[in-house]
Specification:
2 strands, 37% helix, globular, binds flavin-adenine dinucleotide
C-alpha cells in the first residue's frame, strides 16, 4: 500500500492472543505477475486464494495490515449456520432457491472441516456440525 495508508497491527482480540503462528510477510514492492490477485486477507480472501491455488492458478494475496486483521480476527469463532432472511427468500423465490442456499451454508461448513483436516490446522475445532443436518 502506498500514499497515506498507515499499516496497523492486529487489535487486541482472542485471535491475536491465541494464533499459533505469527506470519510476517514483506511489503509488496515492484511489479509481480500472477493469474489472479486477491485483495484482502480475511476469510473471504484467504479462502478464495487457497481455492484458486488448489485449482492450479498462481495467486497473489495482498493484505493491507496482517492476515485476519479485519472481522476475521475479531469474531466469535463459531461456525454459524444461517443466512438472515432465508424465510423471505423462500417466500419470494420459492423452495428451490431457498434449498440451494441452505445446502450452500452446509457446504461452507464442510469446506472448513475438509481444510482443517487437509492442512492439519491446529485450531481447536470442537464439533462436527454435519451431525446437526
Ligand atoms: C465481532 C464479530 C463477531 C463475529 N462472530 C462471528 C462468528 O462467531 N461466526 C461467524 O461465522 N462469523 C462471525 N462474524 C462475521 C465474520 O467474522 C465475517 O463475516 C468475516 O470475517 C468476513 O470476512 P472477510 O474476509 O469478508 O472480511 P475481513 O475479515 O474484514 O477481511 C477484509 C480484509 O481486507 C483488508 N483490506 C481492506 N482493504 C484492503 C486493500 N485496499 N488492500 C489490501 N487489503 C485490504 C483488511 O485489512 C482486512 O484484513 C463476526 C464478525 C464480527 C465483527
Amino acid at each position: 500500500m502506498t500514499g497515506q495508508y498507515q499499516f496497523q497491527e492486529h487489535p487486541r482480540s482472542y485471535y491475536a492472543a491465541t494464533a499459533n503462528e505469527k506470519v510476517e510477510y514483506p511489503a509488496l514492492e515492484g511489479k509481480i505477475t500472477a493469474d489472479i490477485c486477491v485483495v484482502g486477507g480475511g476469510f473471504t480472501g484467504v479462502a478464495t486464494a487457497l481455492e484458486l491455488a488448489e485449482r492450479g492458478y498462481s495467486v497473489i494475496l495482498t493484505e493491507a495490515n496482517r492476515i485476519a486483521w479485519g472481522a476475521t480476527g475479531r469474531n466469535g469463532g463459531q461456525l454459524i449456520h444461517g443466512i438472515s432472511g432465508l424465510h423471505r427468500v423462500r417466500k419470494k423465490h420459492g423452495e428451490g432457491i431457498a434449498d440451494m442456499l441452505w445446502d450452500l451454508e452446509w457446504r461452507g461448513h464442510d469446506i472448513v472441516h475438509e481444510r482443517v483436516a487437509r492442512y492439519a490446522i491446529d485450531c481447536d475445532l470442537k464439533m462436527d456440525t454435519s451431525k446437526l443436518r
